[in-house]
Specification:
Structural class: alpha+beta
Distance between the termini: 47 Å
Shape: elongated
Number of helices: 10
CATH superfamily of the largest domain: Creatinase/methionine aminopeptidase superfamily
Low-confidence stretches: none
Helix content: 25-40%
CATH architecture of the largest domain: Alpha-Beta Complex
Mean pLDDT: 96
CATH topology of the largest domain: Creatine Amidinohydrolase
Number of domains: 2
Oligomer: single chain
Strand order of the largest sheet: 4-3-2-1-5-6
Largest sheet: 6 strands, mixed
CATH class of the largest domain: Alpha Beta
């Protein structure tokens, strides 16, 4: 698979007119050659590809890397790439400016042979956006774990439990079920904290009448799951219950309409329109969703400003929300695979409001 991916990258850089592509982002390196280490730079030229890493991975890298030779280096990896014979004849090299630091970019510019460095934004996403059957298998397994954990932790939601305590349970139970790691720090946001879309768990304790927003996911074989559910504790206020109903209708409408061939902005508009009709448009403060894969947030973006046509085989999240400052928040999120005839949901928990 990695050999085929390297060939697709070569076709991509032939199209840009560059001599080579340098990948430094961990996820991009893993996708291209299979290396899972935390320190790596992959130089892909017309006929050869070379992974540069350090001595910690001297035994690991040759076992994982497919389609590229391995160079074990000391010191700065990017400087080592520039001194390698494969880089000596390059007149131009492509880099992903959105995933490379300014310092790294400048170090490429300082290579001895002085190639022209051309920066692209998420260049590799043109290839990674469509998922293979094997990638979907990994994501499906990750989502199965997250769904199982959600069902398992519901009985633990009761007055007096803190958000931090509950977040720790989410992490522990994912790892116990076989997840490699969490795909992001879990969001556990109760009551007024739920009005913060990216709230971090605090010492606040669950109380009767709270809506509790739970957003979490994990990695399996490098690929992510991502889900959000909002549950009620005791008797939430009527406005909170109505907001939940609106978000649920918006999520279901967008998921029903999701398919390849539709514009990202049009899918966003379906959910946003229903929330606006309910008078809550100003309370929906983010895009409808995002791509999912080796990164928990990747292309494509489902947003009002993105007129990109969604491709067959992309995996995206559909996650409308409503946030009322100082009072409550609601978000419901599912991950789906886009197909021409519609979408296929990864394993997912029910979206009906659960009152505990």
């Amino acid at each position: 698979m990695s050999v085929e991916r390297l060939q697709s990258i070569r076709s991509l850089i032939n199209g840009t007119g560059d001599d080579a592509l340098l990948l430094t982002a961990r996820e991009d390196v893993r996708w291209a050659c299979g290396f899972t280490g935390s320190s790596g730079a992959l130089l892909i030229c017309e006929t050869v590809a070379t992974l540069f890493t350090d001595g910690r991975y001297a035994a690991q890298a040759p076992l994982e890397v497919d389609g590229a030779t391995v160079e074990i280096c000391s010191g700065d990896l990017i400087a080592a790439v520039g001194k390698h014979p494969a880089a000596s004849s390059l007149s131009s090299i492509a880099v992903d400016g959105g995933r490379m630091s300014v310092a790294e970019f400048r170090r490429v510019q300082s290579w001895p042979n002085g190639p022209q460095v051309r920066s692209y934004d998420s260049l590799l996403s043109l290839l990674t956006i469509v998922k293979t059957d094997d990638e979907i298998r990994r994501m499906r397994r990750a989502q199965e774990i997250s769904d199982d954990v959600f069902e398992e932790i519901l009985p633990l939601i009761e007055p007096g439990v803190s958000e931090r305590e509950f977040a720790a349970e989410i992490v522990y139970r994912h790892l116990k079920r076989g997840a490699e790691a969490m795909s992001f720090e879990p969001i556990v946001a109760s009551g007024p904290n739920g009005a913060l879309p990216h709230a971090r768990p605090t010492d606040r304790r669950f109380a009767d009448g709270d809506l509790v927003v739970l957003d979490f996911g994990c990695f399996v074989e490098g690929y992510a799951s991502d889900m959000t559910r909002t549950v009620g504790l005791g008797k939430p206020e009527s406005e909170a219950l109505e907001a939940y109903s609106v978000v649920k209708r918006a999520q279901e409408a967008a998921q029903s309409a999701a398919r390849s061939g539709i514009k990202a902005c049009d899918l966003d508009r379906i959910a946003r329109g229903l929330i606006e009709e309910a008078g809550l448009g100003c309370a929906f403060s983010h895009g409808l969703g995002h791509g999912l894969g080796l990164r928990v947030h990747e292309s494509p973006r489902l947003a009002a400003a993105n007129d990109e046509i969604l491709p067959d085989g992309a995996v995206v999240t559909i996650e409308p929300g409503v946030y009322i400052p100082g009072r409550f928040g609601v978000r419901i999120e599912n991950a789906v695979i886009l197909r021409p005839e519609g979408c296929i949901a990864l394993p997912q928990s029910p979206t009906n409001l659960i009152l505990l």
